[in-house]
Specification:
This protein is mainly α. Helix content is 72%, strand content 0%.
Length: 490
């Protein structure tokens, strides 16, 4: 089930919130938690009941493993259980996400003919696997208290963060679920949640899905891109993935508030970053902290000299690229970000002398070019894209008319045409799209993000109420096509 769907907004959403607080109102906290768990399983299993069974099996397996960890003090047994827990979780993830990629490369390199499984990737498997790995490792380190199975299952399957993050630690969510103060409707949190949800839905439906039409057209065409059209397509994807992921994070954050749950920040205006290091402090923040805590620091972090530090950074980014998908494009994307991060670290003092606005623009351009690799289905498509990017002009002119027709045929553009902007659009057909892209980039560079806006004031003002109502109405009226969030694929 998707946040940006009629069934979620008009059926699931009201049922889960009202039912949860109804059970608490009648003094049934365990039933309320059980109800939330069941509704979360419905949310996950809506599109595929088979993947729900995989999720449930994973939850039971990890909980039992931690139970065994708690019952033994012998270091050897604990280490064996830890290795088993890491091995099983990574093994399941490898089987569904990386097996075919591994076999394809083995067949290519060694001229073998092993059969591919061609399995569909279970939604959110990378997220809930990492979340449970953190619980297993923390239990081994004796850094978490004893939880009941219902609490643990609700923690893993809590629907706002289940499919695309944030990656939440047990000590961030379970205490909030236990807190009796959170078992009553809090109208301040209700206002914050609806406001964040409405802004996130607008980002997804009105911005990201609009840009996706141009990006899909651009990457599906193989012969007539020009320099200008490639720049536009690259910028559109750079903005699409930003507003798609930002929209999801806003909606997850807002839904959490409706249950009086404050989920950790996962997206903090990353295009305001003045360096690649800062970009990764702002983009998918919970993934960054996971790799820092469970990969970078165990490798030695920055404690073993500069060369070892650079190697550790490179390993983390290599793993991060692979985490995003079983494709060489993701691996190379992670690699170039790792190299850029090391470059930042080496020349940190010198780079600080460069004005922030220049550093921000350079970082943005680097990230945008890297996204063109990330978006490519394979290295061949990436090479073709940049081959055409160096064609200043072809038989279609500076750009292909179909590129701007996609945008100019939108309802919003047609409305502008009818209220007096028709002459400008006819004379400069590319103008609406370029203006849209420029406005979005400026918003990314300078506007406050949703979390900052939500935390400014707890209660509704008339302006905030109007924004919430307008964004919800406009977004719901635009839900002609229900599209998945990009990070569902990772």
């Amino acid at each position: 089930m998707l946040f940006n769907s009629y069934i979620f907004i008009f059926l699931f959403f009201p049922l889960v919130v009202l039912g949860y607080y109804a059970f608490h109102h009648f003094g049934k906290p365990k039933m309320a938690l059980g109800y939330l768990l069941c509704m979360s399983m419905w949310f996950y299993g809506y599109n595929s009941i088979k993947y729900l069974f995989i999720l449930i099996a994973s939850v039971i397996l990890n909980y039992l493993l931690v139970e065994l960890l708690d019952r033994t003090d012998r270091l050897l047994y604990r280490r064996l259980l830890l290795i088993a827990g890491i091995g099983v979780n990574i093994g399941i993830l490898f089987y569904y996400k990386y097996y075919d990629f591994f076999i394809e490369n083995v067949n290519k390199w060694f001229k073998t003919d092993y059969a591919l499984l061609r399995l569909m990737l279970p939604l959110g498997i990378s997220f809930y696997t990492f979340q449970q790995l953190s619980y297993v490792v923390d239990s081994y380190r004796r850094e978490c208290e004893k939880y009941g199975f219902l609490e643990y299952a609700a923690y893993v399957i809590f629907f706002p963060q289940l499919i695309a993050g944030p990656i939440v630690y047990h000590d961030e969510l379970i205490p909030q679920l236990r807190d009796e103060q959170n078992h009553r409707i809090n109208y301040e949190n209700l206002s914050k949640g609806l406001y964040a949800f409405s802004l996130g839905l607008a980002k997804k439906v009105l911005v990201a899905d609009t840009l996706s039409k141009i990006v899909t057209w651009g990457y599906d065409n193989k012969s007539y891109q020009t320099t200008l059209s490639c720049i536009i397509i690259m910028l559109c994807y750079t903005l699409q993935i930003y507003f798609d992921f930002s929209g999801y994070c806003d909606m997850a954050y807002g839904i959490g508030y409706l249950f009086n749950i404050k989920l950790p920040f996962n997206f903090n205006s990353p295009y305001k970053a003045n360096s690649i290091s800062e970009f990764w402090d702002r983009w998918h923040m919970t993934l960054t902290r996971f790799f820092t805590k469970y990969v970078y620091i165990p490798l030695g972090g920055s404690r073993k000299g500069k060369i070892r530090t650079y190697i550790n950074i490179f390993i983390v980014f290599l793993v991060s690229g692979l985490w995003h998908g079983a494709n060489w494009t993701y691996i190379l994307w992670g690699t170039i970000h790792g190299i850029a991060k090391i470059f930042d670290r080496i020349f940190e003092r010198i780079l600080k002398w460069i004005p922030n606005i220049i550093r921000r623009i350079v970082t943005f351009v680097f990230v945008a070019v890297a996204w063109s690799l990330f978006r490519s289905e394979n290295l061949k498509q990436f090479k073709r894209f940049w081959k055409y990017a160096f064609r200043l002009k072809n038989q279609y002119g500076l750009y292909h008319e179909e590129l701007v027709e996609i945008f100019n045929n939108l309802t919003e553009t047609r409305i502008l045409y009818r209220i007096g902007f028709g002459g400008i659009i006819d004379r400069y057909p590319l103008f609406p799209l370029v203006a849209f892209i420029v406005l979005l980039i400026l918003a990314c560079f300078f506007m406050k993000n949703t979390q900052e806006k939500v935390e400014e004031s707890g209660k509704y003002s008339i302006r905030r109420l109007a924004v919430t109502v307008v964004m919800l109405f406009w977004s719901i009226m635009s839900l002609s096509d229900v599209s998945e969030f990009l990070y569902f694929n990772f």
